[in-house]
Amino acid sequence: MSAYSHLFTPLRIGTMTAKNRLLMSAMSINFGVDAAGRVNDQLVEYFIARARGGVGMMLVGGGAVHPTGLELPDLPKLWDDGCIPSLQAMVAAVRPYDCRFGVQLMHGGRQSYHDQKVAPSPIPAPAVVKGVPRELTPEQIQELVAAFGDAARRCREAGFDFIEIHAAHGYLINQFLAPNANRRTDAYGGSFENRTRFLMELFRDIRGKCGEDFPVGLRINGEDYIDNGWGLEEACRLAVLLERAGAAYLHVSAGVYGSRQLTIPSMYAPHGCFVHLAEAVKRCVSIPVAAVGRIKTPELAEEVIREGKADLVALGRALLADPEFPAKARRGAAAEIRPCIGCCLGCIHAVLALEPGGCVVNPGVGREYLLKDEAAAPVPRKVLVVGAGPAGMAAARTAALRGHRVTVCDRRPHSGGLLRLAAIPPGRGELADILDFFEADLGRRQVDLRLGTPVTGELIAALAPERALLATGSLPELPVIKGFSQTRLNVATVVEVLDGEVAPGERVLILGGGQAGLVLADHLACAGRRVVVLNRRRHFAEELSSNDRFYLRERLKGDRVTLHKGVAVREFLPRGVRFAVDGVETTLEGFDTLVVAEGMQAVREARRLLETAGVPVELIGDAREPRSLMLAISEGEEAARSL
């Protein structure tokens, strides 16, 4: 019996039964369709991997019902019958895995990435997407009502088990519901009854075209988290109406573009951050209710179901990070689940930049169709990985999976490299989760991990590796600025401060406004220091996803941190600095510490030793060039595949 007995209990939803309580949320992944918007093998294999991994239900994301409502360019287009054959093929490919398969129907409204946007009222989105939408006429509203029904009918004809109407997250239906987006004075605006009319009409149209035996669920917001938006009281009223109308289930989420709490929260938000909204809606209805929001462990998912807060748990990013999350949880191997770290870089930041979605900790997302037939290495080799940071451990894991005999050496007494330090500041602890996963997985795969072991000629001779991967990381660069070497400030690097080698004073200057500088500023401010950040770039923390950066910037709004950007540092003074912004000079004095958190330089000392010993070497991660965690992990895995 599973340790998560509530989570792995079947659930009746309308006329269908799901084998467990895990629902893969619809995600606009922005890949896997051809130029006509028909799904292809890339999307098919992406879903097969998740269905094989044991999830009970899953949804295709971003199914556009009308050309005006295509949210992102590379999503399935459902507005004509030409979409049906490719959808049928995808359904047939998923069918053997006993997973209830559905499509989420949506119209982006004013949050669509094109210049033909329409909305209830000509009001632009409060954030992210630019441009004023055209106000829908009553005739156009009826056209969209029919478009939802027709798209649903196509999904049923393609063989899907159910559909979900996307009425949340600031997209078109939510725009009709929310007073701040709907200023209409006709039958579709004003009162609660009028603002819900569009949704109720399209729901009835779907039921009429698909039949009452076809399960139709809805994703609704419990809270918009924005001024004059949709709120929980109205969500509960709507839930009752939808149950009476025949809804199969309700999926309760939150947030819109520009909201105070983001729809896709980063690592700074608490786990289960929207569960209370589902719990409130569940008290009003008897149909199943799904909870969502930073649910990344089977322990939390089980708790939500066991305590009656919801009937289903929706997982999005957790199933990007590890498609086998359900199967591992069911067999009692939760410790083997590759964890989402809440960074939002591959899954949302890339998509909002109109790029294909991905995952920092799982470079296989979107590449399932390329990797599905991957076999063991034809010739097992002895491989030495130098460096036990994320790139090195990712490489070692993949090499071991392919059958190589792997040794990992690191001169430091702990694994993780600089990422272990990056997990120290407040709210960043989940960065260490992927390091702990890698280290434990290396142990399960019998990789010889030698910490506190620098690479020497003697070691190379003893190990006799046939290939080497150099993943020795990077260290901070020191700037060349007038007065830097003469200042009486206590000078340290961000690495030395986070590692505890240098204790900063009470008033700290930080040179660098990237990710390292800002998280360090937060770290020091929380410890009671007063901090001034000097950023020589025009933007702060560009390495972070916009979602992650939003929460960090909110944390820095207190009086302990002062931020300056576009800074030209003229000189460092004995106890301060003189700098200019847009030609206006400022002098700050009375500081005791200067922390350098700006550029990084690759560390490659072991390369010459290996080459002298005749061992072929490939540089990966920051040892190749200091860049992002996403590139470090993907580069490590790819290098291991090439051995």
Compute the average pLDDT: 96
Tally of individual domains: 3
> What is the level 1 CATH name of the largest domain?
Alpha Beta
Shape: globular
Tell me what you see in this structure.
Helices cover 32% and strands 20% of the residues. The mean pLDDT is 96. The protein is built from 22 helices and 27 strands. Helix 1 (41-52) packs parallel to helix 2 (84-94), helix 2 packs across helix 3 (138-158) and helix 14 runs parallel beside helix 16. The chain is α/β, with parallel strands linked by helices. Strand 19 (507-511), helix 19 and strand 20 form a beta-alpha-beta unit. The strands form 7 sheets. An 8-stranded parallel beta barrel has the order 3-4-5-8-9-10-11-12, surrounded by 6 helices. It has 3 domains: 11-370, Alpha-Beta Barrel (TIM Barrel), CATH 3.20.20; 374-475 and 601-641, 3-Layer(aba) Sandwich (Rossmann fold), CATH 3.40.50.720; 478-598, FAD/NAD(P)-binding domain, CATH 3.50.50.
Précis, in short:
By secondary structure, this protein is α/β, with parallel strands linked by helices. Helices cover 32% and strands 20% of the residues.
